[in-house]
């Protein structure tokens, strides 16, 4: 498990930033000698570049601007001008901290390159996940600290790219935190600490669920090409979202991996497209049920669905030799057994979507940057492996999958016609 | 079919739907022919019904006296308020009712069965976008009270319900809510001043097992309303203002602090499964807060769903016709 900062240390971190500016500047200057462009000389201001100005990217700017002092949105980029405009309007409540002049607003396919080429030192990656490996690679290559939304890839080629970016970020001393916000959530951190301290004994099994109804889709406009339609409805195309198991259920799989302390080695399972079959929902599945196995023989039962009108459950559990941890974000965090424990849901704690930025910024300013890329890559691979098992019907080993180096992206990224891939049929020749 | 036979115009059909779908329950109606009687509303072309009970016009003292235990400053000054009669939902609105609107189940059914309803105004009401989560928080939906929806959602549901049924449904005003909750009492709760008996009337922190419950399982108040104390806290129409009771508007007949288009703060009443008895008191007020959407990671945040308000729901009221009955 990758440790994060002390969940109860929010106050002391703030104190640290306030009272030790000189020391922080000192350490930043030391770092900045190795990192041209990462820091403005003599300043520890965080200059944020946003790549992907949709609802989540814009929300992430809200979060980072409240996460620490000395943070400003400096550059913004999106494929679509309308999304960029809406985003800046929605951010206008922050005043100067989010006022980005026209010359630092970029749209189009190369918007991400222009954001990364600017003098920002903190990049937020919030486009659809299919673009993430390219953006991560470019941001790390340019020496930027990164907050990346989850998942961090959708295919095995992306996995390879992200692992390389992880190594390079380590070499360059760059901070990378991922939007698996449960890792920065005080209740989850307290629960996991107890598990590590033996509160449930040895973990022998795990469970993970993200069952919910359907999600949004955007009706096709006259002037939209296939490419634009797919990207605006990115949830429903595997090359963009990875399917809902990768895009959404990765949160719960990440908690299971966190609790077990590793990434599974193989998976078998089922899935399909049964209730949500209309063409506006692309070609992804609407349910998965999977049995993962870790190297130590522990099994993880995973279930996720997006079927309207069915009862929901978003939760995780770790079964130990002496007790059980059950977590359901927003509802309860509880250990059952001799070392029973319950998180007091009345207790105030920092919003995890803010805390993840607070932790990243504090780590950068302290000269000890967090790098969560390997951890989130492991959980993303877990989800991709599950999808592959369901799509093909085969037992998928993580080792084999990682070696396939498969890319789902279209050959050329350009506005124009693009086919909708067929719905995967397990056992058929074209699924692997 | 029924509709086509009856209707000459959309309006006539609305009136017809009202007659056909309204079942009078009142034995009392016989005793006082002009008095409003309880009735069961049916959502057209579904098997879903809910019960409405009449609340007589009258006056009451709104707010709490300084002497009341756990009293908060926003509950005063206590002041006399005059309220017209209305109908109020016997229970809090359930997911079964809400999802017809919230997840367009009515439209789906129409598509599937080729039903043509004349009340197309209902189809025009803006509908919620689906939430990126499980809106029932793992507690299931059948007959369970709605939770975690915004004030805007509750208002829009009432608009939709009005268009579907041809009757004027809306959220209660804060004054109507407290008047109905008190049901003629002046004590801290409609069952007296002693919170020790709260368990007979309410789901709250100590007995809820930290979750909302099916409505109507505890004792009703004197006017036949269930779960006014506890279970889910209830949206009212008003903008929350801590000092509203001290303003002249508070003592006008049928007081109402119009929120306009404000997103926050609205008043929420009755306390919830997540509260201690002090917050369940008839006079206790709570203001909605942007924190109720703190884990919504989007900007703009959803105008339909709260990510951090599993304790809030609502019930509907219906105004009486000018004539006083029906």
Description:
The complex is a heterodimer of chains A (432) and B (326). Chain A has 432 residues and is an alpha/beta fold. Chain A is 37% helix and 19% strand. Chain A has 2 domains: 175 residues, NAD(P)-binding Rossmann-like Domain (Rossmann fold), CATH 3.40.50.720; 192 residues, Dihydrodipicolinate Reductase, domain 2. A 9-stranded mixed β-sheet of chain A has the order 14-13-12-11-7-10-9-8-15. In chain A, strands 3-2-1-4-5-6 form a 6-stranded parallel β-sheet, sandwiched between helices. In chain A, helix 6 packs parallel to helix 7. The longest helix of chain A has 20 residues. The N terminus of chain A is likely disordered. Chain B has a single domain, classed as paralog of FGE (formylglycine-generating enzyme) (Alpha-Beta Complex). Chain B is globular. The two termini of chain B are 26 Å apart.
């Amino acid at each position: 498990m990758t440790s994060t900062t002390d969940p109860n240390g929010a106050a002391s971190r703030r104190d640290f930033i306030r009272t030790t500016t000189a020391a922080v500047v000192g350490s930043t200057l030391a770092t900045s000698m190795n990192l041209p462009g990462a820091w403005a000389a003599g300043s520890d201001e965080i200059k944020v570049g946003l790549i992907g100005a949709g609802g989540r990217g814009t929300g992430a700017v809200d979060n980072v601007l409240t996460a620490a002092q000395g943070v400003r949105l400096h550059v913004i980029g999106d494929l679509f001008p309308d999304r960029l405009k809406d985003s800046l309007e929605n951010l206008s409540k922050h005043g100067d901290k989010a006022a980005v002049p026209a010359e630092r607003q970029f749209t189009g396919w190369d918007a991400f390159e222009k954001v990364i080429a600017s003098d920002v030192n903190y990049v937020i990656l919030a486009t659809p996940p299919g673009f993430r490996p390219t953006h991560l690679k470019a941001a790390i290559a340019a020496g930027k600290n990164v907050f990346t939304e989850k998942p961090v890839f959708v295919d095995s080629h992306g996995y390879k790219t992200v692992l390389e970016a992880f190594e390079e970020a380590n070499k360059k001393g760059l901070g990378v935190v991922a939007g698996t916000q449960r890792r920065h959530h005080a209740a989850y951190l307290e629960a996991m600490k107890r598990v590590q301290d033996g509160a449930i004994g040895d973990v022998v099994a795990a469970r993970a669920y993200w069952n919910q109804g359907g999600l949004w889709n955007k009706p096709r406009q006259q002037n939209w090409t296939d490419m634009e339609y797919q990207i605006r409805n990115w949830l429903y195309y595997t090359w963009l979202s990875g399917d809902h198991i990768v895009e959404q259920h990765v949160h719960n799989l990440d908690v299971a991996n966190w609790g077990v302390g590793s990434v599974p080695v193989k998976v078998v399972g089922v899935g399909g497209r049964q209730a949500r079959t209309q063409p506006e929902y692309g070609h992804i599945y609407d349910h998965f049920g999977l049995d993962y196995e870790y190297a130590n023989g522990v099994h993880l039962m995973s279930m996720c669905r997006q079927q309207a009108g069915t009862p929901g459950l978003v939760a995780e559990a770790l079964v130990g030799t002496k007790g059980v941890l059950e977590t359901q974000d927003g509802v309860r965090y509880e250990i059952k057994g001799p070392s029973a424990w319950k998180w007091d849901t009345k207790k105030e704690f920092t919003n995890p979507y803010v805390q993840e930025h607070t932790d990243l910024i504090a780590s950068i300013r302290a000269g000890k940057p967090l790098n969560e890329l390997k951890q989130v890559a492991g959980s993303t691979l877990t989800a991709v492996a599950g999808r592959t098992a369901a799509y093909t019907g085969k037992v998928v080993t993580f080792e084999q999958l990682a070696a396939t180096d498969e890319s789902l992206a279209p050959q050329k990224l350009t506005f124009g016609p693009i086919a909708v891939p067929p719905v995967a049929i397990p056992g058929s020749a074209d699924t692997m | 079919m029924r509709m086509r036979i009856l209707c000459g115009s959309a309006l006539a059909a609305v009136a017809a739907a009202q007659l056909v779908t309204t079942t009078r329950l009142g034995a009392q109606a016989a005793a006082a022919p002009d008095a409003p009687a309880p009735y069961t509303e049916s959502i057209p072309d579904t098997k879903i019904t809910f019960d409405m009970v009449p609340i007589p016009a009258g006056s009451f003292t709104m707010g709490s006296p300084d002497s009341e235990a756990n009293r908060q400053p926003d509950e005063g000054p206590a002041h006399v308020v005059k309220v017209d009669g209305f109908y109020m939902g016997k229970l809090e609105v359930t997911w079964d009712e809400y999802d017809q609107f919230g997840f367009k189940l009515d439209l789906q059914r129409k598509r599937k069965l080729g039903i043509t309803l004349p009340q197309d105004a209902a189809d025009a009401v803006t509908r919620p976008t689906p939430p990126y989560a499980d809106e029932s928080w793992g507690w299931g939906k059948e007959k369970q009270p709605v939770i975690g929806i915004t004030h805007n959602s509750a208002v829009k549901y009432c608009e939709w319900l009005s268009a579907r049924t041809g009757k004027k449904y809306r959220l209660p005003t804060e004054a109507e809510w407290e008047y109905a909750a008190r049901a003629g009492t002046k004590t801290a709760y409609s069952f007296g001043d002693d919170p020790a008996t709260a368990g007979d009337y309410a789901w709250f922190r100590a007995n809820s097992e930290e979750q909302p419950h099916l409505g109507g399982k505890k004792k009703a108040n004197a006017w036949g309303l269930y779960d006014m104390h506890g279970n889910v806290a209830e949206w009212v129409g008003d903008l929350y203002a801590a000092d509203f009771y001290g303003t002249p508007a508070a003592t006008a007949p049928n007081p109402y602090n119009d929120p306009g288009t404000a997103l926050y703060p609205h008043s929420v009443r009755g306390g919830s499964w997540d509260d201690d008895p002090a917050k369940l008191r008839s006079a206790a007020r709570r203001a909605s807060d942007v924190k109720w959407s703190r884990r919504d990671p989007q900007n703009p945040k959803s105008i339909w769903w709260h990510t951090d308000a599993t304790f809030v729901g609502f019930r509907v009221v219906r105004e009486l016709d000018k004539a006083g009955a029906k």
